[in-house]
Design brief:
Length: 556
């Protein structure tokens, strides 16, 4: 690195970081607009953008009731080679801080208050060391935002710059990633308008460490998909329970067969994705009555490194069919045992549970009810849009409502399991999945490690996947033939409330790397970022990465 940035860069990062942390920007709320306006105004004060006001701006999220926007900036140098700096400016809320909530956005005051609390030994040690900065968003990811913004300003001062820099500051990453999903469309627009050749996305989420002396670089990001399971039973009074079918018992069996099941953990090299976790499961009763519930539903997360929506649908269908058989056998055996205790004649229950994916259910409703169904379906979708907009309904709950409406229009009234997907969906992505990459990208992680060892005697280990889920997922699309035909038709909210620019993702196909500061306890009361990384080292690593990618002449 031969570029000499101003000696006060650490001070600039610290000042901006403290200001960003102090601005509440809870995800999914109007508060995000406050920090967006601040960042937009901050960029507008940079001399380069004062002289070139068309090179930065606000990109409104289409159809967003909160009117949030992506803040973007383009630093135009020589040639087409372009590096993208990406960060998000929203944070999770501060409810977990309890009585300390008013101090969550003031690191200095918070650290004083935390000293009086009973904390874990690790947190106590870091608190006393003075090497860490505590507070909501300090690590995730106001630190990365401050570093990238200051680097943008520093690069804008160079008289000659080989290449281009695009900066995206996006909202909603902690929720549905609306910002980056729209940000991909913005990147396509800028690419076409300015003839940019995108070489890499540099994200700056905080990294975690297995050893204190070894940092982490990620050249991809884990995928996430949220299956929803809806079980329609058969209502009956509890005095005659065998005449009905309790959906809770079947849903419970499906949970048992999937929750924490390592079969769903993808393995790539020595990296493995965490097993599935159910986050909601219950009956669909709204009021108490002395009867078996008519339906039950739940949803869970599957994190992927290789699995596609097509494969997951096939696997879940098989599991649900196995669970249905297990439960029918269980009920039959209990019924026979129950009857054996009396003189009542033993009749066959004749249970039959069907398993369908949502697209099959939707097609059946059209076949059975035609336009009448489609009119009701479209009317319901308009209502759901407003309910979600005004926080009267959640996204997963709305998925269940759509399934229930669809079931009303099919003639088959037997017990049934419906498998669908609920937003958000994050495709897995990794540079190892690209068929061809420039040498500058292929060697980047190794070169950063060499630079870090030479500079501070600190190593950085490369991982193929960032396991924390990130916006990097939308920079490219692999195995599109196993995604597009299966995700949309089986996600009831697709195209109306939620969509992903799959075509632009596939066309752009931008590799990525995450270079961020060391952070701990994200989304917790003890969230913190390493001061040294924030103020000194991470900015140098990112600067090295930018220069290496833009200046390397070897393409393959």
């Amino acid at each position: 690195m031969d570029k000499k940035f101003s000696l006060g860069i650490s001070s600039k990062i610290e000042t901006l970081f403290n200001q960003l942390v102090s601005i509440k920007s809870d995800t999914g709320t109007i508060l995000e607009v406050d920090i967006e306006n601040y960042i937009w105004q901050w960029i507008g004060k940079i001399d380069y953008f004062k002289k070139n006001p068309s090179m930065y701006g606000k990109y409104l999220l289409k159809g967003d009731p909160l009117e949030r926007f992506v803040v973007w900036a383009l630093l135009k140098g020589k040639g087409k080679k372009t590096t993208i700096l990406l960060h998000h400016h929203d944070v999770v809320d501060s409810l977990d801080y309890g009585i300390l909530r008013e101090y969550a956005y003031n690191p200095d005051l918070l650290q004083k208050k935390l000293q009086k609390f009973n904390l874990s030994e690790d947190v106590k040690y870091d608190l006393k060391s003075g090497k860490w900065i505590f507070g909501r968003g300090t690590a995730d990811m106001k630190a990365g935002a401050a570093i990238q913004l200051v680097l943008l300003e520093e690069y804008s001062k160079l008289k000659e710059f080989d290449g281009n820099l695009v900066l995206l500051s996006v909202p909603d990453e902690e929720s549905l990633s609306f910002g980056m999903r729209e940000g991909i469309n913005l990147l396509m627009k800028l690419k076409n308008e300015f003839e940019l050749d995108y070489k890499i996305i540099i994200n700056s989420e905080p990294h975690e460490r297995e050893e204190d002396s070894t940092g982490s670089l990620y050249v991809g990001s884990v995928g996430k998909i949220m299956p929803t399971i809806y079980v329609r039973g058969r209502k009956a009074h509890i005095k005659d329970a065998f005449s009905g079918f309790n959906p809770i018992i079947l849903l419970s069996k499906i949970v048992e067969k999937t929750d924490l099941n390592p079969y769903f953990s993808d393995v790539v090299g020595d990296e493995i994705s965490p097993p599935p976790s159910w986050i909601y499961a219950r009956d669909r009763k709204k009021y108490y009555d002395v009867s078996i519930p008519e339906a039950a539903g739940g949803y869970f997360n599957i994190l992927t490194l290789k699995r596609t929506p097509k494969k997951i649908l096939n696997e879940l269908k098989e599991i649900c069919e196995e669970a249905s058989k297990d439960i029918m056998d269980y009920i039959d055996n209990n019924y026979k045992d129950f009857k054996s205790r009396t003189n009542i004649e033993d009749n066959e229950l004749g249970l039959d549970v069907k398993v369908k994916i949502f697209s099959e259910l939707y097609d059946q409703a059209i076949k059975d009810s035609g336009n009448k169904f489609l009119e009701e379906y479209n009317s319901l979708m308009e209502k759901i849009k407003k309910d979600i907009e005004y926080n009267r309904a959640s996204v997963p709950e709305s998925t269940f409502v759509i399934i229930e409406k669809t079931l009303e229009y099919i003639k088959d009234l037997s017990p049934m399991v419906i498998i669908s997907f609920s937003p958000p969906y994050y495709p897995h992505i990794s540079n190892i999945d690209f068929k061809e990459l420039p040498m500058s990208v292929l060697t980047l992680a190794d070169k950063i490690n060499d630079f870090s060892k030479d500079s501070w005697n600190e190593e950085y280990k490369k991982y193929n996947y960032f396991m924390g889920i990130s916006d990097m997922s939308y920079g490219a699309l692999n195995a599109s033939e196993e995604i597009a035909p299966y995700i949309g038709p089986n996600m009831p909210l697709w195209g109306n409330i939620y969509k992903i620019p799959l075509e632009n993702m596939e066309n752009l196909s931008i590799p990525s790397i995450n270079i961020g500061p060391w952070g701990k306890d994200l989304h917790k009361l003890s969230e913190r970022v390493l001061k040294r990384d924030l103020l000194e080292r991470t900015s140098k690593l990112i600067q090295f990465a930018i220069d290496h990618v833009l200046r390397c002449n070897k393409q393959y």
